[in-house]
Every structure is written in structure tokens, then in C-alpha cells.
Amino acid sequence: MKKSVVIVEMGLRDGLQNEKTVLDADTRVEFARRLILAGTKRVEIGAFVSPTWVPQMAGTAEVVQKTFALVKSGSIPKKTEFSVLVPNERGMMDAIASGVKEVAIFAACSESFSLKNINCSIDESFKRFEPVMALAKKHKIKVRGYLSTCFGCPFEGRVSEAKVVKLAQRMHKLGVYELSIGDTIGVADVGQVESLFRKLKKVVPVKKLAGHFHDTRGQALANILAAYKLGINVFDTSLGGLGGCPYAPGATGNVATEDVVYMFHGMGVKTGLNLDKLIEINPWMAEKIQHPLPSKVGKVGRLK
Ligand code: HMG
Ligand code: MG
After folding, report:
1. Residues 268-294: pLDDT tens digits?
2. No. of helices (H) and no. of strands (E), the chain
3. What ipTM was reported for this prediction?
4. Alpha carbon of 153 to those of 30, 182, 210, 250, 253: distances in Å?
5. Do 84 and 46 contact (CB within 8 A), yes or no?
6. Any keyword Lyase (predicted)?
7. What gap in Å lies between CA 182 and CA 149, rounded to an integer?
């Protein structure tokens, strides 16, 4: 097993998209700044989705522009990689105009969730990716892929492994550089994670697979460990365990970045993140969104 993992910070997108308090662009830029100064190397900084559907992500262009200005001024390191979520060609055009060099596309593994989340079937969503991928090629933009509801759907229940594997192959063929496997409603257990990732590794190179676990049922750390033991080295996490998906009823936040970092550092696995600095962000963010964050380590800190 590799002695280091890559953490992709979701707080600014998957985290904030489900919060009642909508944060303005300056607060989101400050959040990004604090995360990056805590060592974050990859950040999903926002989403070019419909502001009618997800008002929390309105102002993403301003967040990108102001964060890039901080990079330019040398206030935050140049090495940070920023990505934005795009559902269609319109979102991709906005992403290109903003100057980002990476986008993330997303498809569901269940028809009902696809309809509720992006108002179209799974097949239609893949059709929408075609112009997005063509624009990405033209503008030399990296594309990450997500598959949602890989372990269960809030409307249809269990999702078959065969369906997820087929869609993973389809997404991989599109040319995404990484494929993040989403437990959107935090329903997966270790048995399911081992079984699905073993099958996925046969169709997508393991280096290209990432795990995206929500912690709704408290299984996310165990699931990450199970995936890590199968060779998965990239994990999506959210500072404090913020958020969830507004179109997945009952879904809570991604697994907390602090909790994941605590676990890996305890095992001697490097994350490149500074746990104390991450913990410092926790009360600041709790004040901004006006409620405590679910992270365990973020709340009590570590033994000094
Ligand atoms: P729609 O209403 O079907 O769109 O929404 P439409 O094509 O009919 O257009 C309606 C209006 O929206 C038009 O404006 C379009 O221009 C505009 P009008 O002519 O009426 O003035 N529009 C847009 N505006 C801004 N940005 C755009 C855009 N596209 C069209 N990109 C749509 C379809 C996909 C836009 C909508 O359903 C949407 O934005 N959905 C996003 C939902 C979302 O962000 N969900 C959360 C992210 S997914 C997730 O959290 C899961 C994940 O974390 C992994 C996991 O946990 O499993 C990734
Ligand atoms: Mg998610």
C-alpha cells in the first residue's frame, strides 16, 4: 500500500451546497485561503450549476476570480489545483470564462436521482457530456468524473454493482482523468465497498479511482480504510464534514477532512495536510454557517 494519499477538498462545493446559510464570495475565498494554508493541494471550489437549483453556488465565478488573484499575489501557493463542477455545456462555458484548468462532470447510477438532481435521464446526461468533453479538449482542461448513488439511491434503494461498473466504464471511456465513486447518501458498508471496488479495478485503472464517501451512517472512515487497502489513494473529504446534496433527502456531509487526516497520520500515511491548521478552521466555519460541524476531531482536537 502507498504511504501517502491525496485528499480532494469538497467543503466549498459539496459542503456549502447544502447549507441553509448562503455564504458570500469573500467568505468562500477566505475559506479557500485557510484550507490552502493548511496544506490543501486540490480544491473543488464551486459549481457552475443553475442558481435556481442550487443558490448556494451562485457567485462561483467571483470566488474563482478572487482566489486566483490571491494566487497571483503570492498569498497562497501556486501549486494548488482548483476544480469546478459543471452539469452541461452552459456550465462548461462559464468554467472556461472563469479561467479554471479543471472541471468535474457528474452522472448518477439511478434514474430517479438523475432526474431529481439534474432534470434528465442518465443517458441524456452522458449526451450532455459530449460537448463538455469537446470543449475540454479544445481548451486543454482536465476533466474529473463523478458517479453518484453507487451504493444506494434515496428513491430506488440498492443500486446493482453491474450497473455501477457499466457506468464507470462509460465514464472512463469519455476520457476523464479520474473517476470518483460516490456514496451520495452515506449508505455503504465495508463489505459493499470491498466488493464494488474489486470489480471496478478490473475495468478502470486503480490509479484513476477515487472514493467519495458521505458519513450519514458513520461508516465513512471504515469505508475509506477498506478502499485504501484495495489500492485507492484519492479521497474526497469536506472540512468539518460540511454539507450533503440538496437533491438527496437525508444526505449529510462528506466525511470530515480532519477525521480522515487523523486516521491516515495515525497509520503513518502522509496527506500533506496540517491537522492543527485544519482544526483551527472548524470554529471559524461553524460561526459562518451558524451551527456546529459534525466532525469529531474538528470538535475536540487531538491529544497534545
Ligand atoms: P433545467 O432547469 O432542466 O435546465 O436544469 P434548462 O436547460 O431547462 O435551463 C433552464 C434555465 O437554466 C435556462 O435559463 C438556462 O440557461 C439555465 P433561462 O433561459 O430560463 O434564463 N441553465 C444554467 N444556468 C446556470 N448554469 C448552468 C445552467 N444550465 C442551464 N450550468 C440543470 C438543469 C442541470 C442546469 C439543473 O438541474 C442543475 O443546475 N442541477 C445541479 C444540481 C446540483 O448541483 N446538485 C448537486 C451536485 S451533485 C452532488 O452533490 C453529488 C456529488 O457530490 C457526488 C456524490 O456525492 O455522489 C458530485
Ligand atoms: Mg457528494
Report:
1. 999 999 999 999 999 999 999 999 999
2. 11, 10
3. 0.98
4. 34, 11, 19, 11, 16
5. yes
6. yes
7. 6
Query: For 21-57, how does the pLDDT look when each residue is reduced to its tens digit (9 = 90+)?
Result: 999 999 999 999 999 999 999 999 999 999 999 999 9
Which of these, 285, 275, 276, 277, lies nearest to 240 by C-alpha position?
A: 285
- CA-nearest residue for atom 34, ligand 1, is 118
153 is catalytic: no
Domains in the chain: ranges and CATH: 6-300 (3.20.20.70)
Indicate the SS3 state at residue 43. strand
How many Å from the N-terminal Cα to the C-terminal Cα in the chain? 28
- pLDDT range class, residue 11, cuts 50, 70, 90: very high
Residue with the smallest CA separation from ligand 1 atom 14 is 50
CA distances to 12, 50, 110, 195 from 188, in Å: 24, 29, 15, 11
Report field, pTM of the whole predicted structure over 0.90: yes
Q: Which grid cell is 16?
A: 456549502
Q: DSSP strand E in the chain: where?
A: 6-9, 42-47, 81-85, 102-108, 142-148, 152-153, 157-158, 178-183, 209-213, 234-237
Q: What is the mean pLDDT of residues 217-244?
A: 96
Q: Which of 49, 90, 150, 151 to mutate to test the pocket of ligand 1 (most atoms within 8 A of CB)?
A: 49
Q: Please tell me the residue having the least CA distance from ligand 1 atom 49.
A: 245
* Residue ranges around ligand 1 (CB below 6 Å): 14, 17, 47-50, 53-54, 87-88, 90-91, 106, 117-119, 146, 148, 182, 184, 212, 214, 245, 247
- What angle do helix axes 25-37 and 60-73 make, rounded to 10 degrees? 40
